[in-house]
Design goal:
Rossmann fold
């Protein structure tokens, strides 16, 4: 077994005893813990390997200056930048640096998970946190951070917390010893696709066509976290092309739904210049949880109970037109081959004749706005079919393969 260095991150004035316990557990398993102090309050209760002064300076400030900062958020930002810099440096300079485990409450979790964003997919990262009882997507942001609930507060060791920390230590040691980073074998060409339950037939058909051509599809659920992860993978260079069938995350970002992937959704492929085909799959839906969670501002709208925990709200005519403009603006910056394919028969399983969200006027408002704002170098293809019709999926697949085969990312055999 190779000996690994594992960073243990915590504010050592308030979490020193617990961080030291983790460090000793890591030592017992034959590895080297590296204690990093991210505190900026009282004095540390255990001696760190990397001090809070070093972290603050790596973040462009000094600890003395931080002690004068009234806003905790500014201090957290400085320490987060410093920790990011230190983690990046460790990974670049030390081949034995193989994992990171952090402990924290609300501030510590925000600080550590923000810093973990600099570590690539596949690099082990665990966050033991007290604040995992709500939406945690803002901590993950598309990265494979393992969030581990502390169960009790991290305020002195007790039988429950001791078991949690021991298990987390065992987990991080095992991952450090045997984790693997995503890599592509020679000749593997990965293609990202986006899917929702109400666009699944289309995505499944396109996926089969891509597989028949020797390509490797990666399907992402367009639920916010899925879109962020896909964008991250595209930027990492692990994706050769995108068939972005389900763009409903744009709708949630505009209208305030719970499945937003953030303002950078649809940007990565354009920036990387890889071939992409984009469709307005499920773009007519704003996503919320159980019906009781729908904000009062939407109560007068048409809605559909998808499951007991998922309520879909129909977009307005103005929102539909605005989404066309937003999509066009994002795609106009594409440096690679790009096409938009519009299913004139409807955008999702709920958006077809006889279904609750079918609205020809709204669909047309989206299409006309998109066409008005779309740059001349972006292809716009209209197909007289519903998004889940086999003829539409076939057209999308054929168009994407043509763009891919004529791009630098792929050479047809």
């Amino acid at each position: 077994m190779r000996r690994c260095t594992i960073a243990v991150v915590a504010s050592l004035d308030t979490k020193g005893e617990e961080a030291d316990f983790v460090a000793q557990e890591i030592k017992r398993r034959g590895h080297n813990p590296l204690l990093i102090d991210t505190g900026f309050g009282g004095a540390p209760s255990v001696k760190p390997d990397i001090s809070r002064q070093e972290v603050a300076e790596a973040g462009g400030n000094t600890l003395l200056q931080l002690s004068d900062v009234a806003e905790r958020t500014q201090a957290i930002s400085v320490m987060s930048r410093g920790l990011s810099s230190i983690l990046s440096r460790l990974r670049g300079e030390r081949a034995d640096f193989r994992a990171v485990l952090a402990l924290g409450g609300s501030c510590g979790t925000a600080l550590a998970t923000e810093s973990m964003q600099v570590l690539p997919l596949g690099f082990p990262k665990i966050m033991v946190s007290t604040v995992l009882n709500a939406d945690v997507s803002h901590f993950l942001r598309g990265k494979d951070i393992i969030l581990y609930p502390s169960i009790t507060d991290i305020e002195g060791l007790n039988p429950i917390l001791t078991a949690v920390l021991r298990n987390a230590s065992l987990m991080i040691c095992s991952l450090a010893e045997s984790s693997t980073m995503p890599s592509l074998e020679n000749g593997t060409v990965t293609i990202a696709l986006t899917m929702f339950g109400i666009t699944t037939p289309c995505v499944s058909r396109v996926k089969k066509v891509l597989e028949s051509r020797g390509l490797t599809p990666l399907v992402f659920h367009a639920n916010g976290a899925g879109g962020r992860t896909m964008e991250e993978l595209i930027r990492s260079g692990l994706v050769a092309g995108v068939v972005d069938i389900t763009t409903t995350e744009l709708t949630d970002e505009l209208a305030g739904g719970i499945r937003s992937a953030g303002p950078a959704r649809l940007d990565a492929a354009a920036d990387k210049g890889i071939p992409q085909v984009v469709c307005p799959g499920a773009i007519e839906t704003i996503n919320f949880g159980a019906e009781a969670t729908v904000p009062p501002a939407f109560k007068g709208r048409l809605f559909c109970r998808h499951t007991s925990g998922a309520t879909l709200v129909k977009i307005s005519l103005n929102e539909s037109a605005e989404l066309g403009r937003i999509m066009a603006k994002k795609l106009n910056s594409s440096s690679g081959p790009t096409a938009v394919v519009i299913p004139l028969g409807g955008f999702s399983e709920y958006n077809k004749p006889g279904k609750p969200f079918y609205d020809q006027e709204s669909n047309q408002a989206f299409t006309e706005s998109l066409e008005k704002h779309l740059a001349a170098h972006i292809d716009l293809v209209k197909v007289d079919a519903h998004i889940n019709d086999s003829s539409f999926a076939r057209k999308v697949a054929e168009l994407f393969l043509r763009l891919l085969e004529n791009s630098d990312a792929y050479s047809a055999s």
